[in-house]
Design goal:
single chain; alpha+beta; tt1808, chain A; six-stranded mixed sheet; three-stranded mixed sheet; about 20% helix; endonuclease activity
């Protein structure tokens, strides 16, 4: 739910003035407050991060976990004018280090993983999905802890996400971005 003083369009410059102990994201200029994640969310995020991070050792791409700001510019906006701050995605893989600055990444990452909850499902599956597809994020994963499912969306040649590949806790995911990387979901969803 959007919360903050009404303003026509909030930007990264506005975001930098807000209290550091509050977690916000801005989509199309509208600010959304984020709540603290559950322990299940943190466990899933930690294991996915660990597996990806271990693979990326000595490779050019880097993985980041929240809190980490992702600013996706539209056109040639200056950093402070960006109004699409998808702040704090759970996990982000970036392969262009030149776009790392200030509080995060200013560009289009290669892979984004969002761990959804009932309160964020609409935003993750609709608003962010459409933004990431339009921006050209090559892979977008939506993790559903309650169902122990991961939907993997891959950008197709027509610059649209195809039908998702859906995985359960018993599966392994071959990461499209890194064909040699396989994520073992047995360790991602233990006792959750």
């Amino acid at each position: 739910m959007p919360i903050r003083e009404p303003k026509e369009k909030n930007t990264y410059a506005d975001y930098l003035t807000w209290p550091e102990d509050e977690r916000w994201e801005i989509i199309d200029g509208v600010p959304y407050m984020q709540s603290a994640p559950t322990w299940q969310h943190q466990s899933i995020s930690g294991d996915l991060y660990r597996q990806i991070s271990n693979y990326l050792v000595d490779k050019p791409c880097k993985v980041f976990a929240a809190p980490f700001d992702l600013c996706i510019p539209e056109n040639d906006e200056k950093d402070e004018d960006i109004s699409n701050i998808i702040s704090q995605p759970d996990i982000v893989v970036v392969c262009d280090e030149s776009k790392l600055r200030k509080t995060g990444y200013f560009g289009v990452p290669s892979l984004i993983i969002e761990i959804s909850s009932p309160s964020t499902a609409r935003k993750d599956k609709l608003i962010k999905f459409n933004k990431f597809e339009k921006a050209g994020v090559r892979e977008y994963w939506i993790v559903e802890p309650e169902n122990k499912l991961i939907s993997v969306f891959t950008l197709q040649e027509n610059n649209r996400y195809g039908r998702p590949e859906v995985y359960s806790e018993e599966d392994q995911i071959k990461v499209n971005l890194f064909p040699e990387l396989t994520i073992d979901l047995k360790s991602v969803f233990p006792n959750i």
